Amino acid sequence: MKSLKKTLPFILLNIAVSALTVVAVLFIWEHIQHKRISEQAQAQSTQIKPLSELSTPETNQNTSVPSKTDLPEGSIISIQNIFGLGDLNLEYILVKNEGDSKLSLLNWSLRGAERKSIHIKSDIILNPGGAIKIYSKTGTDSALAIYLNSEEAFWQSGAIVTLHDPELVERARYEIP
């Protein structure tokens, strides 16, 4: 009993130091991963200018360009990143409205390496600065998530994912590392 009283403070001290070490390592790891993902998203995400900025008299002469009413002026949308690549339960695309007006995603489409078009059938409104997760798995659409109801993961490394408006004009592009 005497030896237990002598060693108990050292055991408790060891437990406390071990717990603090684990918490510190996890905190540092999370900070590094978050920073790496942010840098990767900035490097990989390419924004396409809104149609209103692209429309000039020269481009409207020989091509059919949707009117400005199809996409609110100042709207810019981007594919921020694709997470959980290859794992159906985790895989999703983060799409963000970086413009200064609301944007409906009804009848927009995603295209990948195989040029298969995935249509968005939910009338989700993205507010300025708002983002939405587009999951590959099955689920019920909400204001924060759209589910593509796939039985397998869509995206693979090296593929280029594009986001198209209802007029099939490419609005965002993302190359998966």
Describe it.
By secondary structure, the protein is α+β, with helices and mostly antiparallel strands. The chain has two domains: 1-47; 48-175, Lamin Tail domain (Immunoglobulin-like). 30% of the residues lie in helices and 25% in strands. It is built from three helices and eleven strands, in the order H-E-H-H-E-E-E-E-E-E-E-E-E-E. It has helices at 2-44, 51-54, 57-62, and strands spanning 45-47, 77-83, 92-97, 103-104, 109-111, 117-119, 125-126, 131-135, 145-147, 160-164, 170-175. The strands form three sheets. A five-stranded antiparallel β-sheet has the order 1-11-10-5-6. Strands 2-3-8-9 form a four-stranded mixed β-sheet. The protein starts with a helix and ends with a strand. Mean pLDDT is 78; it is low at 41-70.
- Judged by helices, strands and strand pairing, the structural class is alpha+beta
The geometry reads as elongated
What summary fits the major beta sheet? Answer: 5 strands, antiparallel
Instruction: Name the helix and strand elements from N-terminus to C-terminus, one letter apiece.
Output: HEHHEEEEEEEEEE
